Amino acid sequence: MAAGTAHETGQAHPIRLYLLVWGWLFVLSACSYLVDYFHLHGYLRWFLILLFMIVKAGLIVAVFMHMAWERLALVYAILVPPAALLVFVAIMTFEASYTLLTRLAFAGG
After folding, report:
1. Three-class DSSP category at 39
2. pTM reported for the whole predicted model
3. Which residues, in sequence order, are CB contacts of 67 under 8 Å at separation 6+?
């Protein structure tokens, strides 16, 4: 009897939630394909593609990987390292631009 009670009180999510997320993933994928369909170029294209990609990844991680219901420490353990990596890549990008501009200014181009 106790095993049945534990199973009933376990973490069960309604199928409606999963269908809703699948619908949103379909809509976001359609939007990312529409970016190419309408021949958007430049920064707007890349911004929209990355935005849709990040939102889709967030939905997948939150619902299908059950991160929305996990402890905050586990969420931090999974989300902080990629965020730190992005910060370090941004720092390296600024440093590389500074180095290139310094070389062009003093060594001649």
Report:
1. coil
2. 0.64
3. 61, 74, 75, 78
